[in-house]
Amino acid sequence: MRIGILSDTHDDSHMTRRAVELFKRRKVDFIIHAGDIGSSEIIGMFSGMNARFVLGNCDTDHDGIREECVCAGLEPASRSTSFEFEDKRFFVCHGDDCSHYREAVTSGNYDYLIVGHTHEFAASHKGSTLVINPGAVT
Question: Up-side HSE of residue 92: CA atoms within 13 Å toward CB?
Fold first, then answer.
């Protein structure tokens, strides 16, 4: 299983396109975007791919982003999501809602917690959960 993780694209189509090309070259099976997408136009770059998006604090066009997700054949973006992929449990949120983040970390219910927001790469274990922040695409 190869998972591509990105966050904080902030409507930077050039860098997002480069990330998508890298994911394709590396034959990524699934993509997770941890928020601050920027606009609905970014979503279109992931059309035909297996991807999940969450909304960040800078994503103001919630309806447009959700609609574009549906048009691209993806699940509509929400503020957080949890799911299973290849027998692993994931929780994804942008990271700006501290109480939601803390609740997910302390629950022990997830193998992976994916966040964004700080624009800095970080990866650490919190109990049995691996918390990953991919940093900003820009």
Answer: 25
